[in-house]
Amino acid sequence: MIAHWAILSGIEGNLRALEAVLRDLQRQRPPITTLYVLGDIIGLKGQNDAVVQRLQMPDLEPLDPQICIGWWEEQCFNLFGVGLSGEVPELIAQQGEAAVGQLWESISRSSVQWLRSLPFGFHELDCLLVHGSPVSASEVLTPATSPAVLCDRLIRADANQLFCGRSGELFDCWVRAEALTSEVKTLDGRETQTFDLPQRRLIGVGSVGRQSGMASYVLYQPGNNQLKQCFVRY
Amino acid sequence: MKYAVISCIHGNYEALNAVLLDIDRQRVDQIYCLGDLVGYGPYPNEVVEMIRSLDIPTCQGCWDEDIVMGLNACECSYPSQLAEKRGRRAHEWTNRVLHPEVREYLAQLPMSLRQGNLCFVHGSPNSQHEYLLPRMHGFAALERVLAAQADVLFCGHTHIPYVRYLREGKIRVHHRGETPQEFQASVKMIVNAGSVGEPRHGRPNATYVIYDTDTQEVTLREVPYDYQKTCAAILEQGLPPIFAWRLARGMEFAERADDPHHVCQR
Questions:
Q1: Per mean pLDDT, which range of A17-31, A57-71, B97-111 is the poorest?
Q2: B162: which of A79, A197, B32, B140 lies 20 to 30 Å off by Cα?
């Protein structure tokens, strides 16, 4: 069977959008072999517990869903006292004070526990799939990000393709760096080296639930590196 | 202007005195310190008092942070679990002897300092714990200098001094359907100040650097001192004897890891 991945992110609790995308996946040819969900499963777009339960349902099994955490999950962990910090300044700064209570009310303890078991991302073949960047789930990468930052994140990714979802945008861009001369002088001598970064690809996977009525995601065939951007109206 | 930049003193008062004397002879205009005033060595209070009395602008090192934060900081840089246990013993000893006002001083130190196009940090602009090694990927190194919005980035933490010039790198970003974006950086420098009190360049001498803003020349200084005095004090204070052994050789000592797969749990 030809490896054919569906990669999505940013459901943000929007069950209707998720169901629309899952229906769209059933129609794809060649059939989808793996479903990657790059975080932001939960959010403030509706039914967080229902989305968590949907992703656990056995009828998704053939797609072998691989799910990692995103920015919203990290906010949730901090809010419920199971994250790296007991505070949620990013949540308040980006979504306002009211979001704290809304997020708290919108998800059960058991869902939080399940989300807590999810990884940061996936290294598969020559691809890294994460929500934000190799540095953090909250970092937004787009083609407009500083070229030096993109170059550094692709070096850290240690992969030819970096898939990310934090921006919610669909994009497909290539980064190449060349001819940096580095001269190092120590107490015991000098060394000169030239550095290059062969062409690397940065892919934005869109957002399922952020924009009402329109979901987006990508399809990728690792065998031939073909990428298809998909839109689903619902 | 001539700047002397010192780092990683680690409670070694003898070494600090020798370096300050050497700096005095070089006629510098200003001294900067990149942190790690305490840890490993036997005179943490004395070192901090000296730095404070001379009003030397100082940023916070990883050991300074650990002492203030109670070993919350990431310790995965230790080469083995045995090394981590020794580090923990040194932390507990330092924590016990430190004067309250010294702890307060360490707590208020900034993460970075800036002077024109120069930026001073302990590890990297990202973290006191990140090592900017001289052989790290050139474009990753360039990103750290740009992140600091500087032309010259001073760091420590590795305990081995170096100066690194980064020249002529070109980055091209091609977004499907749009004009490619090109970026070319001007010459940037990373200057590692080495270590005053716990050198690891293969000799026991203290190290630091001098930077001349007029000529942009960096001088790596190596200063002999009576390291045996510090070694004796390490043993007297009951600190792990291996600290004296490695100080006398100017190297990091690491036995084979108990658990070679040991990774940070944070």
A1: A57-71
A2: A197
Measured between its terminal Cα atoms, the distance across chain A in Å is 30
Interface of B with A (CB under 8 A): 134-135, 137-143, 146-147, 160-176, 178, 181-183, 185, 201-202, 207, 218, 220, 222, 266
The minimal CB distance from B162 to the residues A147, A174, A184 is found for A184
pLDDT of residue B260: 45
User: What pLDDT does residue A6 have?
Assistant: 96
What ipTM does the predicted assembly reach?
0.89
Please indicate, yes or no, if residue B212 is contained in any of the structural domains.
yes
Task: For residue B137, give the chain A residue with the closest CA.
Answer: A195
Q: Which domains does chain A have, with CATH numbers?
A: 5-233 (3.60.21.10)
pLDDT over 80 (residue B27): yes
B169 within domain boundaries:
no
* Residues above pLDDT 70, as percent of chain B: 90
pLDDT digits (tens, 9 = 90+) for B104-122: 999 999 999 999 999 999 9
Contact B173 A150 (CB under 8 A): yes
Question: Which of A152, A175, A192 to substitute to test the interface with B, most B CBs within 10 Å?
Answer: A152
Q: How far is B160 from chain A (nearest CA, A)?
A: 8
Residue B34's domain is classified under what CATH number?
3.60.21.10
Q: Average pLDDT, whole number, for chain B?
A: 89
Query: Residues B184-209: what's their mean pLDDT?
Result: 95
Cβ–Cβ gap B201/A151 under 8 Å? no
Q: Tokens representing A226? A: 């073909």
Contact A186 B167 (CB under 8 A): no
Q: How far is B132 from chain A (nearest CA, A)?
A: 12
Is A156 near chain B, with CB under 8 Å?
A: yes
Rounded distance between C-alpha atoms, residue B5 and residue B220, angstroms = 10
Asked if residue B70 has pLDDT above 90, the reply is: no
Q: Do B142 and A148 touch (CB under 8 A)?
A: yes
Structure tokens, A64? 């072998």
Name the DSSP class of A126: T
User: Residue B38: which domain range?
Assistant: 2-130+194-249
Mark B186-212 as b/e (b = at least 16 C-beta within 10 Å).
Answer: eebbbbbbbbbbbbbbebbbbbbbbbe
* Calpha distance A184→A177 (Å, rounded): 20
